[in-house]
Write a structure and sequence with these properties.
The chain is mostly beta strands and 142 residues long. Helices cover 5% and strands 41% of the residues. The chain has a single domain (33-140), classed as predicted glycosyltransferase like domains (Thrombin, subunit H, Beta Barrel). It is globular. 16% of the residues are buried. Mean pLDDT is 75; it is low at 5-24.
Length: 142
């Protein structure tokens, strides 16, 4: 290397370049599947209960749209539920269930129609034969 070679612009492995935005590290290696369903996020104390909208799933994670003002941040844990305790499941979800998840990414989204927080979560692994880890994913993909 003589020092006169042009600099490369190829991002390192595992880093994606957005067309007109910041670079980010891709955390999912499974295919993403578009979905559209509402879920409830409940913190472990039960003091925060908020409705969010799931827009993508993968084998072990989800991408959610969360309203602003709830303080959702990386590292927090929430129980994702198809419905609130004592109520019936929301239409369009297809199953009744819940899974614990950890927030691994947040990104503020400001647009003309609706401001929200784009949230990436990793679902906890479930060892029970009654609720395998892929059950949520398989039932939500249309």
């Amino acid at each position: 290397m003589t020092g006169h070679e042009p600099a490369t612009t190829t991002p390192p492995l595992g880093v994606a370049e957005l067309p007109h935005g910041p670079r980010f590290i891709e955390r999912r290696f499974e295919p993403r599947n578009p979905v559209s369903c509402d879920l409830w996020m409940i913190d472990h104390h039960g003091s925060t209960v908020l409705r969010c909208h799931c827009i993508e799933t993968s084998g072990n994670g989800m991408r959610l749209r969360v309203p602003l003002g709830y303080g959702v941040s990386e590292g927090q844990r929430y129980e994702l539920c198809s419905h609130l305790p004592g109520t019936s499941s929301l239409p369009g979800f297809g199953i009744v269930g819940n899974r614990w998840a950890t927030v691994v990414r947040t990104e503020l989204q400001l647009d003309e129609c609706e401001d929200h927080l784009d949230v990436g979560v990793v679902l906890d692994v479930v060892e029970s034969p009654l609720q395998p880890a892929s059950r949520w994913h398989a039932s939500m993909v249309r």
